[in-house]
Structures are given as structure tokens and as C-alpha cells.
Amino acid sequence: MHHSNKHTIFELFKNQKMMEDTSTIDIKSINEKIEKESAFVDLLTLEMNKVIVGQKHMVERLLIGLLGQGHILLEGVPGLAKTLAINTLSQAVDGSFSRIQFTPDLLPADVTGTLIYNMKQNDFSIKKGPIFANFVLADEINRAPAKVQSALLEAMQEKQVTIGDDTFKLDKPFLVMATQNPVEQEGTYPLPEAQVDRFMLKTVIDYPKIEEEQLIVRANLKGAFEKVNPVVSLQQILNAQKAVREVYMDEKIEKYILDIIFATRYPEKYKLADLKPLISFGASPRGSINLATAAKCYAFIKRRGYVIPEDVRAVVYDVLRHRIGITYEAEAENVTSVDIINKIVNEIEVP
After folding, report:
1. For the chain, does the N or the C end have fewer beta carbons within 10 angstroms?
2. pLDDT the model gives residue 20
């Protein structure tokens, strides 16, 4: 084994116990490229921090969704700056923003758009709905009936919308952040499992820490929020979405991801037989794809050109918490999908 060409990769993976033939992949150059491509992440974060206090986790997840071309389901009580966060992101990225407040009387056309009859021209013109924006906040998605939910989800999945006989491509980049209230209120329509699976991440946000909230109160009472400037162009984001795919993922990491996913389906094969009665269904192949994508995005945000196990562990909860069905037995024992992920992540050997 030659020393020279192994030298750089050995430095990168010293603590990763990962060695392989570098003739096919030059980690060093990928790493340099990603470091250059991801330079805007710091700018973007700084810009958002002008307005958003704390909520580092939420901001990071928004970036992962944006770079991974996924969408985010956000759960948290009202007043935790969800609207503010995605609005700020759209200003910092120089993109368009729209907010759709989901209510029980909303119609699919209120999301996608409608044909309007024009008497003068004796013709129909098209009025595009609020879905045509780069950043769409779908607020309280569980308050609208299934038809409206599926209109939104179809647009998210297909990246296009049909109005009348015409099909329109949605703007790129396109990020939907849907929020739902955790409290089971009257008159909510929970998203069906198959629909929830379409969200790359489900992030649960909590109240700010007391010293953060002190800053929030001060800033609000002063009424002096700094202006958010567009520091990143939409083109830069589109380039970054391409670059993220080039982040190197070793086969050992792929295997690690698959082990985690398969443990949600066949826990007994991973010395986790006690989880079997608690899981009604495991993660689908979308879970594997999204876990791999999110791990690459996380590495990118950390300005690294290769994925380490820590990246997978950092995103695993948000990628899987909505993809594992729990049984009545689990509910009776107060076991959540997060507890299940915890057990799996602690059991499965880290490469």
C-alpha cells in the first residue's frame, strides 16, 4: 500500500476508521469544491440571525430542506417565529414568499390558482395561486380538509400545477414549510401517513431559552429590527443543490443508513426484538433516500465534502420521526417514535 495517495484521505478519515482506494474519488478536491460552494451558508445564517433569535435548529433544518430539494413539516405552538423564519429566509435568498393560512373552508383552487372568466375577451385567464413562490408557508395544514392538503402535496411532489387544461412548472427553488399544531384541537384533519411521508423532515420546535426570550422581548419592544438584505441569489441556491449531490458518501455510511432504516422494519434482526410490538410500520424507501440526502446537506452546511456518521445522527430524528408508525401498545406505554429511533441509533454499530 503506497503512502502518498493514501495520505490525504487518511487525515480526513483518521477517526472514521475508513480507508479505501482513492483512485476513483479524490476526496481532497471534492472537499475544496464544497468548501467554496458552501461559503454562502455563513452569510445566510448571519443574515437570518439579525431577526431570528435562537431557533438554530429550525434555521438549520430550513437550509437542509432547501439544499436537499425537500419540504419541511414543522410542529410547534403558535408564536415561535415559524412565519418569521421562512419569510426571513426568502428575503436573505432574494426569493419570493407566500403564506397560505389553511382553514376548513379553503378550496384546492385557493392554493393552486383558478381560471377566471373575462367577459370583455370572452375568454378565460389564469390567476396563479400562492403556491407559485420560492418559499411557501402552509400554515396549520391540519385545519384544512383532505382535498386541499392533497392539492398542496401534489404540487410539492410533482413540482407542477394544473389549472384548467394547462400545466405550469413551479418556481425553482421551491420550499414548502407546512406547520401543524401539536395540540389536538377540535376540527383538525390530521395528515394521512402517506402524505406525511412526503415531507423530507419533520421538525419539532420548542420554546426559546429564557435568555433568548429576553432578547426577543427587548428587540420587539424597541421595534428596531435590522433589515434583512438579500445575500444569496436564487442561482447560488440552485448551484448548491447540485453541489450537495457531489458530497462524498462512503459505502460504510450507506450501509449505516440502511441498517437504521431496516431496523425500523425488522427490529428483531438487529437485537431489538423488544421494539417489534411497538412498531406498526417502519420507514419506507423515501426514508432511506431522505436520510442520505439530509446527511449530505448537513455535511455541506458544516462545509465538509464528505459525510461522517455524526451527520447521519444529527438528522436522523427529523427524517424518521414521522415515518415510524407506533402501535396502541406503544401509545399505552407512552413510547414515541423518537424513543424508538433513540433505541435504534444506540444499538446500531457506527462505522
Report:
1. N
2. 47
